[in-house]
Specification:
It is a single chain. The protein is globular. By secondary structure, it is mainly α. It has a two-stranded antiparallel ribbon with strand order 1-2. It has 13 helices and 2 strands. The protein has one domain. α7 runs antiparallel to α9 and α7 packs antiparallel against α13. The model has no long low-confidence stretch (mean pLDDT 83). 21% of the residues are buried.
Length: 319
């Protein structure tokens, strides 16, 4: 793996610990997953501070004059923020109630991956697809998060009467915690996809060797390889089920936010073309940044959904 790709993964890893989403360590050399008193105490403090910030969010002074106007997108954006806040609080809670389950599942996956790679190596094509997927997700996800945070500053000032830019920035960063949790899910599914791709490549190799003129000498070895591949295929399937259970809440909320965001975007575009009052509230800079951020957001969604669809194809159509 290239050094730049490792740096990208390192950014998400340390950002997850900084925001209290990841309450354990991972050793990239040995694959060991462990806890430490310092990280446990730090994540506990961050979780408590996260819950104490909830009353501040609920006390935001809404611009009632604007809210009484036919601004459907404002209510939808408010609903999206509320969903994200609730899910983030639930995620912080699950980090402690299901901490042992998370670590057990990850340890099982790491051991399974190490055992698999001791017998079958990843091809250069599979490794390139993996690195490309990580880079694209990091690039478009980072641009989307930064753009949405910057674009929301003026929105918070007008619609929520938040004159303090630091508070607006903190609220934007707070809402982006959910995106980090979604990246964890994406990265796990991506790792499973590359193993499934390797299994499919090995199945193709077995079928090609079985079609040779004299496959008798290879029958025993091919049958052993086929049994082992079937074992790994089944184990990966059970892991996918457990991972989906671990991140089911975040996935449901993210999907709901996508649909609500689609409705808000359609309505905002219609109002921008039909009326001019929106342009009186927001500067050209905010409009440009928001449009750019939404483009990055939908590209990132395409990458995530593509990864999940690849999982279905690789599992249902092996070989």
């Amino acid at each position: 793996m290239k050094r730049s790709t490792l740096w990208m993964l390192g950014v998400y890893y340390y950002a997850s610990q900084l925001m209290g989403v990841l309450s354990f360590h991972y050793d990239t050399n040995s694959g060991e997953i462990y806890t430490s008193p310092s990280l446990t105490i730090y994540c506990a403090v961050v979780s408590i501070l996260t819950f104490t910030a909830l009353p501040l969010v609920l006390r935001v002074d809404l611009n009632l004059q604007t809210m009484n106007a036919p601004d459907l997108h404002i209510r939808i954006v408010g609903a999206i923020c509320s969903i994200r806040i609730v899910v983030i609080l639930l995620t912080m809670t699950m980090n402690w109630t299901k901490r042992h389950t998370f670590m057990t599942t990850l340890r099982r996956f790491v051991k399974l991956r190490q055992k698999f790679l001791r017998k079958w190596q990843l091809s250069s094509g599979v490794e390139n697809k993996f690195e490309t997927a990580v880079r694209l997700k990091f690039l478009w996800g980072s641009l989307s998060d930064i753009g949405l945070i910057l674009g929301s500053l003026e929105y918070f000032r007008h619609q929520f009467r938040l004159e303090n830019p630091i508070l607006s920035l903190a609220l934007g960063v707070y809402c982006s915690i959910l995106n980090i949790a979604i990246f964890h899910y994406y990265f796990l599914i991506l790792n499973i996809n590359i193993l499934l791709r390797t299994i499919n490549e090995e199945l193709q190799r077995i079928m090609e060797q079985a079609l040779k003129e004299n496959p008798t000498k290879l029958c025993i070895q091919l049958s052993k390889d086929l049994d082992e591949l079937a074992y790994f295929h089944f184990q990966l399937h059970t892991l996918v089920i457990r991972i989906n259970d671990m991140y089911g809440l975040q996935g449901i909320s993210a999907t709901l936010c996508v649909y609500l965001n689609n409705v808000a975007m359609i309505y905002m575009n219609y109002m921008a073309w039909q009326y001019t009052y929106m342009r009186e509230f927001y500067s050209l800079w905010t409009e440009v940044v928001t449009v750019f951020a939404m483009i990055c957001y939908y590209v990132e969604l395409t990458i995530c959904f593509g990864c999940m669809m690849d999982l279905l194809v690789l599992y249902d159509h092996p070989g």
